[in-house]
Every structure is written in structure tokens, then in C-alpha cells.
Amino acid sequence: MIVYTTLFDSGYLDRAIALTRSFAEHNIDDVLLLGCMDTASAAALAKMDLPGAKVLGPDSFISGELLALKDGRNVAEFCWTTKPFLLSHALDAYPDAEWAAYLDADSLIFGQISPVLIGRNEFDCVFTPHNFSPTFAEYEATAGRYNAGFVAFRNSEAGRAALVTWRGLCAGAVSSCPTDDAYGDQKYLEQLVEQFHVAPGVVHKGLNVAPWNVGRYCFTQKGKQVLVDGEELLFFHFQGFQPVTHRLSLMYRGAYPLPAAVEKLVYRPYLAALGNARRMAGQHGVQHLLKFPGFRKSLRALWGGRGNIALILRD
Q1: How far apart are CA 34 and CA 232, in angstroms?
Q2: Which of 120, 105, 58, 108 is nearest to 85 (CA)?
Q3: Other C-beta atoms within 10 Å of 168: how many?
Q4: pLDDT tens digit string along 33-77?
Q5: Residue 110: which CATH number?
Q6: Tens of pLDDT along 122-157?
Q7: Phi, psi (5° rounding) for residue 225?
Q8: Helix, strand, coil percent content, the chain, rounded in steps of 5
Q9: Burial of 40 per CB tally in 10 Å (0-12, 13-18, 19+)
Q10: 197 SS3 class
Q11: In Å, what is the CA distance from 107 to each residue of 11, 37, 125, 149, 269?
Q12: According to the model, what pLDDT value does residue 253 have?
């Protein structure tokens, strides 16, 4: 089996629900650990009994060395710091797992991820290059070669050593201000590539697809499957997605126009999944945790991304 992890707080509750439900639909033989960064999100999800998932309250994985780092880092920095600690917790909790993998919470699963990892015993880690499209190529200098929205470490001596190395780097320093050697947690992945056996290049085109690389691909549909250059879309990372109100969202915060096929085949299902997640939150009496900036506070963002505005329609 493979143990998957994700991190979020109550501000991402609807996205976490959508991710979890999509995970259960496609990855029935594996488990997703929901790393809740606050007690409110843990209590809310505990009411829902989501299949295929285990809810972890912050006290279960934020302690000791990690807890000591919390006061000196902002929310984003502490989340980045926490990723490798949560992955270590996952491997300790599931010692028979073949791999431990992390997914960002603003993702939706479209296919079965585990076959990409199972049997890859020649590698210690699997990372996903940004594989920037020409429109976004300039960001590689600051954001780095790899995106930490998906990382996987094999449950082996070398794989655990790679994870410990990443954990030490993140514990040492993470910052939202990029430098030549560091940006958040993800530029450190380039150092791991130099020290461990990391799967080279893009291992599967459908893994960690995101706005920064959709311009490279042709999106089509075969039956219920969404295809990326003919390969099954496994999960999409909705970086830049910004909810504005309960029903109004920016699919991408920025002037980049999403391709029509991506909007239809990827974003429309995500909007539907978020709508279902918000209804589920309401049914369990936790809708008050869903926070939206509102129309007035989002005017500038809405104008900048006016080509990417979308509505979640009522049933």
C-alpha cells in the first residue's frame, strides 16, 4: 500500500473535503492522512466519516522539534516546514507502506496515482518538475525546478534518509522570499536530487498538472477519463484558485487565460466538487468555518483575472 498525506487548516476545509472524496473514488486500496493544522478543521472532519481517510489533529503530529519552530514562522512557512515531519509520521504509523506521498490540499484526484509509484524500487524519491510552459518559464529561477505540491519517499533506508535530509533543511529555514538556494520547502528538493536516487524528469504527464504547465499539453476526454497528451490525468493542482464568495471564484488569479479544454474538463468538475463539499459542510453544521473574502475585497483580483471568473451554480 501507499500512504498519502495532505496539510490544511479550516480556511481550506472545502478544498480538503473535495480532495478527500476524489481520493476515495480512485484510490480505494490506500489511505489519505488529513493533517489538520488547527483543531477546528479536525473536529469538523471527524463528524463526516470520510471514506479512505484518517483525520489527524495537530497534536498528533505537531510536537517536539516541530512545535518549537511554530512561533518563529508565518502560517505558510510553518506549513512548508511541517510537510516532511508529517511524511515521517506517516511512515512511522504505516511501517508496511511501500511509499509515503504528499499532495497539496488544493488538488483534485482524477485517476489512480499508486501505479506510478508501486514497483519503482530503483528510486528513493519521486518528485514532479514544474515543467513550465513558455508563459511561465521565467519562474523557474525563483520557484525552482520541482514543485513540492507532490513528493513521494520510498519506505527504505535511503528513502527515509532523503526524507530526514529534507526535514532538516526545512527545520533550518524556509522563506517565502526566494534566494538562489531556497524558496519555501521546494528548492531544497534540488539538493536531494544530487544526493539520492530520484526518478528523472516527468514520470507521468498526468501527475501534478497545474496552471503553470497546462500550456504544454493537449487535453482530451475518452469516456470518463481526462487525458493529458494521451496519458490519464491523475491529479490536478489548482494553484492560483481563489474563492471570492460561496458561489463566485477565480479559477486562476491572474491574467493568464486558461485553455478552454482545461476549463471544461478540469475546472468545471472542481467547481462541482467544491459545491458538494460546501453543502456537506452545511449538512454537518460546520459551514461557519468556510471563509470568503467577498466581492468588494476582491475587486482588484477579479479585474486582473476577469477572463477566469466562474460561478458554482445551484442544483
Answers
A1: 25
A2: 58
A3: 12
A4: 999 999 999 999 999 989 999 999 999 999 999 999 999 999 999
A5: 3.90.550.10
A6: 999 999 999 999 999 999 999 999 999 999 999 999
A7: -90, 135
A8: 45, 20, 35
A9: middle
A10: coil
A11: 15, 17, 20, 9, 12
A12: 93
Would you state the cell numbers that stand for residue 77, as one nine-digit string?
512557512
Question: For the chain, how many residues are written?
Answer: 315
- The identity of residue 118, as a single letter, is I
14 vs 45, 212, 291, 307, 312, CA distance in Å?
10, 23, 10, 24, 13
**CA dihedral over 57, 60, 62, 67, signed as positive or negative:** positive
Q: What is the pTM of this model?
A: 0.96
Q: Give the SS3 label for residue 221.
A: strand
Return the residue matching grid coordinates 533543511: 169
User: How many domains, in total, are found in the chain?
Assistant: 1
Dist CA 58 CA 7 (whole Å): 10
Can you read off the three cell numbers belonging to residue 269? 468538475
Domain that residue 207 falls in: 2-311
Of 212, 231, 209, which Cα lies nearest the Cα of 220?
Answer: 231
Q: Is 292 helix (H, G, I), strand (E, B) or coil?
A: coil
Q: At what angle do helices 75-93 and 157-172 cross, to 10 degrees?
A: 160
Of 315, 277, 314, 290, nearest to 48 (Cα)? Answer: 277
Q: Rounded CA gap, 229 and 133, in Å?
A: 14
